[in-house]
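Quick one, tokens below:
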């Protein structure tokens, strides 16, 4: 494992990385994430508004990636937004993507300011994605850990995430996140046209997780 990790390096992501991030997430997030699979979300339906959110995350100074050292290929991303607690997760993207079942589901499990009585600013971990060939080597955990450290160094102690995958929920739990809300997708299947037969049973719960 150590040998594998010698060929990749942790990098800060910026707006210059936008095109590569979109390509990686189209292939390795949209097509592998259980919620997106059950919602039959395509890159077209997820579309333009997700790109706006990705750009904001790349501009936040808190988004990281892993690149191969030789070919410089992007193999993992952790996209993070910094949000004022009073505006937590109330993105315009929710309005822009009324058609997107995924955004409507995520809006059902929003965080709100009452969950952070003592803080003003919070890291919102928007998306973690690792290229399938590089999974299981701790890359997602390392990127998440580093983003939390960067937050602490800049005085941001709180973080939240909507975990839509058991592997990512495991990473967040080990890094000290607690589940504050859960949404069982089987309770909204008809309303949103989800097909839960497309995903493993253990992947049908979405969790809002916080670290204070
Ligand atoms: C979820 C995802 C980001 C994990 O990336 P990763 O780099 O493989 O994760 P890590 O190697 O840091 O592993 C995290 C944990 O999952 C475990 N794990 C990773 N891959 C595994 C696998 N295939 N089977 C079982 N466990 C696995 C690791 O052992 C580790 O557990 P531990 O901390 O108890 O040792 C990656 O699978 C992915 O991009 N999935 C598609 C997109 C997605 O769903 N993103 C999450 C949205 S919230």
């Amino acid at each position: 494992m150590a040998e594998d990790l010698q060929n990749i390096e942790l990098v800060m992501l910026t707006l210059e990385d936008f095109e590569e991030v979109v390509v990686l997430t189209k292939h390795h997030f949209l097509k592998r994430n259980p919620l997106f699979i059950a919602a039959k979300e395509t890159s077209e339906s997820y579309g333009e508004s997700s790109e706006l959110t990705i750009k904001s995350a790349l501009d936040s100074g808190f988004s990281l990636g892993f690149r191969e050292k030789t070919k410089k290929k992007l193999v993992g991303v952790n996209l993070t937004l910094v949000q004022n607690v009073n505006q937590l997760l109330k993105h315009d993207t929710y309005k822009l993507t009324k058609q997107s079942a995924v955004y409507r589901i995520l809006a059902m499990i929003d965080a709100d300011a009452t969950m952070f009585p003592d803080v003003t600013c919070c890291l919102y971990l928007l998306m973690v994605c690792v290229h399938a060939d590089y999974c299981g080597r701790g890359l997602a955990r390392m990127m998440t850990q580093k983003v939390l450290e960067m937050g602490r160094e800049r005085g941001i102690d709180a973080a939240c995430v909507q975990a839509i995958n058991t592997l990512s929920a495991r990473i967040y739990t080990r890094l000290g996140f607690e589940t504050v809300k859960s949404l069982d997708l089987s309770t909204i299947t008809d309303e949103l046209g989800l097909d839960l037969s497309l995903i493993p049973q253990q992947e049908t719960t979405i969790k809002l997780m916080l670290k204070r």
